[in-house]
Amino acid sequence: MLIRVSTDRPVASSEITPRAAWLNRRDVLGAGAALGLGFAGVSATAAPTPRSPLSTDEKPNRLSDITGYNNFYEFGVGKSDPAANAGRLKTRPWTLRIDGLVDKPADYALEDFLKPLTLEERIYRMRCVEGWSMVIPWLGFPLADAISRAQPQSAAKYVAFETLYRPDEMSGQRGFPRIIPWPYREGLRLDEAMHPLTILATGLYGEPLPNQNGAPLRLVVPWKYGFKGIKSIVRLTLVAEQPPTSWSMIGPDEYGFFANVNPNVDHPRWSQATERRIGEGGLFAKRLKTQMFNGYDSVASLYSGLDLRANY
Amino acid sequence: MRRNFPVWAVYGLGFVPAVAAFGAGLSGLSGPDPIRALEQSLGLWALRFLLAALCVTPLRRFAGVNLLRYRRALGLLSFYYAALHFLAFIGLDHNFDWAEIGREIVKKPYAFIGMACLLLLIPLAATSSNGMIKRLGAKNWTRLHRLVYPAALLAVAHFIFAVKSWPLEPLLYAGAAVSLLALRLAPKKSRSLEQAGNA
């Protein structure tokens, strides 16, 4: 399947959804007076976001689901811990280091780094390795844009990512026993990183990213399990060899480097054949069949010739 | 005070968490994934009641507190919660998809350990009545009910296998279970001495 890279073509003004309609469509304004006021306050200044052809037309989860049900072990292992504890994290100032096998390594102040970039909305399915899923309207830009700016050298084959390590503000990093050898690390093959579906997100639902969702900058790779979406990124390094990644360091037979969503390859602890869509059906929700590559079939060509059973 | 606390009240109070968890799930108060919340809550209470039942003997032996008359209620509550936990797993979590449930129980350690634990609890619940104690005889009954020890170990193993990495909570429960079983290995003093100590 051919993918149109949305950033390469101008968006017709007729395609741009007015912000008020966009918000109404998701019933966010009804979510509560406080939220409603919050949105009203910024809607006068924010520009409408172009709609990407890479977005799913499935109904996004409620904002409260997306911001209240998180795996972000830097703030605790419970699903509601990040929402409770992430407020202490200071995301300003924020420095993003891009280094390794690049011609232009640099430490960027995040605002400067983001200035030349155009943010766009991407509504993606998110499948957690634990067997649940959500639909999330991210706001972000292709990771390829960030990598290109650093001018990778020909020897660069992988991208390594690192989360902030700041135990003073991230209570989970002080926790016992140590769940993860901090800092959290992730990695992508360079062709995966350059794929147009792969984005760095700075917001969701048209607003800046809440801390518990990985503010101020996080990775989103919609055809991989959610744990690949490293949060609160401080460093991006181009490397020649496959970098170590946190969950495969903890359990190499449970979590692989690729971590592509694959209903045919079980996690050793539980089946991956089905998933439960969060926020739908309440106590009597039906499971959905999990799709290969989480339904993002266009990425299959990245893995032709690779045994996905061995390279899980 | 303790003597006056009726056994039926233990059952009454014992079911409060189940009713609360189900109510919270129905009314949307248990968060974005009410099925998982209910399932986990029922399992956790099954484990808590099991450990509570296992506290009775050490409390009597080492602290001189006799709660023996509540032990059956605690054990049965544990079984009821384990059964409800299993029902939530097959019905709510897996929509009675028997093929998938069967695969999961055969192939996944957390599921078959949990299943084995529930199977061990069934004969204990079935022989919990005074009539059954009489029919089996005290000696046989006591021997049969030692199955609660492997059941407790399976219960905490089930918890550990169901989570990612090594978070603290299941390890604390595992520590409690192992400690409660280890207390039973303490050398027994002669009966008269023990009674004198407790008097």
UniProtKB/TrEMBL annotation, chain A:
One biological process term in Gene Ontology: protein repair
PANTHER family named in the record: PROTEIN-METHIONINE-SULFOXIDE REDUCTASE, PROTEIN-METHIONINE-SULFOXIDE REDUCTASE CATALYTIC SUBUNIT MSRP
Spans through the membrane: none
Keyword Signal found: yes
EC number: 1.8.5.-
The name this protein goes by in its record: Protein-methionine-sulfoxide reductase catalytic subunit MsrP
Stored Pfam families: Oxidored_molyb
Matching Gene3D superfamilies: Oxidoreductase, molybdopterin-binding domain (3.90.420.10)
Domain spans labelled Oxidoreductase molybdopterin-binding: 90-247
Catalysed reactions listed for this entry: L-methionyl-[protein] + a quinone + H2O = L-methionyl-(S)-S-oxide-[protein] + a quinol; L-methionyl-[protein] + a quinone + H2O = L-methionyl-(R)-S-oxide-[protein] + a quinol
Organism listed in the record: Rhodoblastus sphagnicola
Cofactor notes: Binds 1 Mo-molybdopterin (Mo-MPT) cofactor per subunit.
HAMAP family in the cross-refs: MsrP
MF (Gene Ontology): metal ion binding; molybdopterin cofactor binding; oxidoreductase activity, acting on a sulfur group of donors, quinone or similar compound as acceptor
Top enzyme class: oxidoreductase
Keyword Metal-binding applies: yes
Binding sites annotated in the UniProt record for Mo-molybdopterin: N70, Y73, E74, C128, T163, N213, R218, G229, I230, K231
Quaternary structure annotation from Swiss-Prot or TrEMBL: Heterodimer of a catalytic subunit (MsrP) and a heme-binding subunit (MsrQ).
Functional summary from the UniProt entry: Part of the MsrPQ system that repairs oxidized periplasmic proteins containing methionine sulfoxide residues (Met-O), using respiratory chain electrons. Thus protects these proteins from oxidative-stress damage caused by reactive species of oxygen and chlorine generated by the host defense mechanisms. MsrPQ is essential for the maintenance of envelope integrity under bleach stress, rescuing a wide series of structurally unrelated periplasmic proteins from methionine oxidation.
Keywords of this entry: Metal-binding, Molybdenum, Oxidoreductase, Signal
Family stated for the protein in its record: Belongs to the MsrP family.
TrEMBL record, chain B:
Domain of life: Bacteria
Protein's membrane topology: Multi-pass membrane protein
Residues that span the membrane, as ranges: 7-30, 42-61, 73-90, 110-126, 147-164
Subcellular location as annotated: Cell membrane; Membrane
Gene Ontology biological process: protein repair
Keyword hit for DNA repair: no
Identification of the protein by name: Protein-methionine-sulfoxide reductase heme-binding subunit MsrQ
Free-text remark on how the cofactor is bound: Binds 1 FMN per subunit. Binds 1 heme b (iron(II)-protoporphyrin IX) group per subunit.
Species: Rhodoblastus sphagnicola
